[in-house]
Amino acid sequence: MTMFSRFSVRRVLNSEIIRSCRLNKQPLLSQVTRRALSLKHHGDPTPAVGTTTRVRNQSFGNTKRIALVSLIGGFSIAVYNIYHLNNPREQLQPDPSKKTLVILGTGWGSTSLLKEIDSSNYNVVVISSRNYFLFTPLLPSCVTGLLDTRSLMEPIRNILRHKTTAVKFYDAEATNIDYEKRVVHFKSDSTDASAAEIPFDLLVVGVGAENATFGIAGVKEHACFLKETKDAEKIHRKVMARVEQADFKGQGQEEIKRLLHMVVVGGGPTGIETAAELQDFFKDDLKKCVPELADKLKVTLIEALPTVLPMFSKKLINLTESTFQEENIVIRKRTMVKSVSDTEIEVECRELDGTVRKEVIPYGVLIWAGGNAVRPIVRDFMGQFPGQSTAHRGLVVDDYLRVKGASGVWALGDCTQTNFAPTAQVASQQGVFLGKHLNAIATAKNHSFGNIAGDVGQPLLGSKAAKAFDYIHQGSLAYIGNERAIADIPLLGMNIASGGQWTFLFWRLAYVKMCLSVRNRYFVMGDWLRVQLFGRDISSQ
């Protein structure tokens, strides 16, 4: 009894071992031995349960703390970004003794250049008929009301007011470039003033391209294009107008089918995404509002080449075609548009055996995404240099983006003829490159643009030759409908081809990150949430 207290003895007497002995009439020593062996091999389960519960509660508590810290951190970053956006620093005034750099356009190339360049090195002047930057990759989403067009617009003055030295902006259209006099002529529709001009020491041409119609009769008069916000709004109005016309009393069945047939010409990313967005709109929203017309809503994609999305891998092309088939989107490959009227499209279909068949396709709305053409101001500027006469796609530039035949003139984006595809990704990288290059020119003790004619020789920065533009392809993305997307991403020397709903999530995250400002990001995500809750806008205005 010296080893046990009175309390210990009472616990033993009241233990389950004693009770078991009384019930089973087995010796106490045998029950104690069996219990001890059980505890030795398996342990006491009661403490294990308590330990597991404590670990689980502790893990849950840590998760809550991490989530709370992340939420607070994200909110703090958002508040800082908004404050920084709305409270720019006071700007310096331009120095008249410095050279005047004139930049034409506010697209991907020009805007990337503006963000990169140190405005204190030059007197920077921007001329554009569009006083905002437009995030064009998401423009097809505006066709159906998934996104508001203003969510993709960033006022160019929001960018300029954050520069070290003030930048002058003219909301006007550049009409002519006089290289010999080194003057840019421009005019504005928003004022009663006559046309004006501005001299330049250095010039960057980034006016983009216009829609190519290839001289096909009726395209310019009857087709809808998709390059600007007004184009997306026009398509939305026309689609809803056709739906209302089809639902009007007394319409014949053939006329209803024609009115509800939407045709997209062009099998590139813009055409594919527009067709996919239209079909989503019909399936998710219009079929609920006008169920009696549900089986007559139709989308057709026309492509002259044997394949769509030629910049993607074969695997993803097949996935796109199979998805379109599931979504009842008709793809007409090897089909060339010959003429367009207000109600019909005349096409030539080339069969696999080489035979050509003519066909007439009735339509309600025609959306043209068939490529780019040179703008008149660029065509006129090209005519001032003999070396540019053979170019068809735009200004010929060298590896430093210098316009061949001109000194102190650069060009970038869709208005140039290069070995690169006319994409936002290329123009953006060109803008960053040229911004850094012009910064280096301004800070170098001595520099040259190469040959005085501007068409041979490396530009020098001090005693070193400048680096040429090196495009780095970061991948291709496209939305193919029904919350699915495709992606070709170069990674570690390989090409990762991915498609499906997880890729759709990546597609959205990538484009949100690519948005120019925090303002655009919040607007785009807000629109997605709005549509998830209330559906797309089906008004005709």
Automatic annotation (TrEMBL):
- Keywords in alphabetical order, please: FAD, Flavoprotein, Membrane, NAD, Oxidoreductase, Transit peptide, Transmembrane, Transmembrane helix
- Annotated Pfam families: NDH2_C, Pyr_redox_2
Q: GO molecular function terms here? A: NADH dehydrogenase (quinone) (non-electrogenic) activity
Q: Where does the External alternative NADH-ubiquinone oxidoreductase-like C-terminal domain start and stop, copy by copy?
A: 473-537
Cite the Gene3D superfamilies for this sequence.
Answer: 3.50.50.100
**What EC number(s) has UniProt assigned to this enzyme?**
1.6.5.9
User: Sorted alphabetically, which InterPro entries does this protein's record hold?
Assistant: FAD/NAD-bd_sf, FAD/NAD-binding_dom, NDH-2, NDH2-like_C
Highest taxon listed in the record's lineage: Eukaryota
**Which chain regions cross the lipid bilayer?**
66-83
User: Which reactions are catalysed by this chain?
Assistant: a ubiquinone + NADH + H(+) = a ubiquinol + NAD(+); a quinone + NADH + H(+) = a quinol + NAD(+)
Q: Which residues form the FAD/NAD(P)-binding domain?
A: 100-431
One annotated Gene Ontology cellular component of this protein: mitochondrion
So what family is this one in? Belongs to the NADH dehydrogenase family.
Q: Which PANTHER family does this UniProt record tie to the protein?
A: EXTERNAL NADH-UBIQUINONE OXIDOREDUCTASE 1, MITOCHONDRIAL-RELATED, NADH DEHYDROGENASE
Protein known as: NADH:ubiquinone reductase (non-electrogenic)
* Protein source organism: Penicillium concentricum
